[in-house]
């Protein structure tokens, strides 16, 4: 303003013509408006210094605050969010305002306080509400608490489980309950899956609930094509597999498995029916495991085809260490030569120790340490 006046003052002394006077009045009017109107840069600076946004993030957010005459409302919002009611950290505030800058325009009394009360009415603690803010910052201000939160907490059984799954798929809070979610649940139930089955499946694949129903229908059709009976436990695995693989990828993997394992299409289909999850492993990994089993352990292709689950175990952390223990015990004559490797692989770690490590601690005192080293990738020679 002062700089502009310095330029205008000489103009006033040089001439008092109508044109010059009109120009002077126009420039002074612009300067006065600029000095009295809310400043774009003031809002941007506020977002950077007070809310912790980067300069680029603040520049994008300032369009939400063109009406600001003062930061009074924003200050009240931040005081509430960081205060004892919710206790958000500086990092939480930066994330929340970056994703939803309009929250600074909210009314503390008419909006935010009521939202916190709504979360708490569904059993959410203050810490869990903070977790929701971190998982779905865009939804905190607009999420339909009564309808959607009520449904999801009832479906999953606890706020903790809802939050855990929301971190994997934030579309849970946006998807249409009637047109999408409940329709998908009905389609899954029509295939014989219970609500408990669906609940369990969605821990690892929540997309089954939020994708378009036509996509779910296609997934279920591919699961049926794998030939797994609908009333079996493995049908759940078939659905998970089909949900993670497109039709082209699934067909390609079936073909490559037939080539890698040297078996017919019918034999591959039988393996998949026994454990559809084999299709979720990369072909490189399956080939490495297959070669280890046939060349190091010494089992043949038919043995593997009848026990496809063996392909799912980690080569480094399960198959190689337990093969080492089996060979050591067989060499000492402590276990049968014809003991099934599959029986050693499939039992849990505690049972494995009780059967094959602890009973021989006196005969082979270094076996436990050798096995522990093998599990870390250091197979003794």
TrEMBL record:
GO terms for biological process: DNA-templated transcription termination. One of its GO terms (molecular function) is nucleic acid binding. Gene3D superfamilies: Transcription termination factor 3, mitochondrial. InterPro entries: MTERF, MTERF_sf. Signal peptide: none annotated. Pfam families: mTERF (PF02536). Keywords: Transcription, Transcription regulation, Transcription termination, Transit peptide. Belongs to the mTERF family. PANTHER family: CGI-12 PROTEIN-RELATED (PTHR13068), MITOCHONDRIAL TRANSCRIPTION TERMINATION FACTOR FAMILY PROTEIN (PTHR13068:SF35). This is Uncharacterized protein. It comes from Panicum hallii var. hallii. The lineage of its organism: Eukaryota, Viridiplantae, Streptophyta, Embryophyta, Tracheophyta.
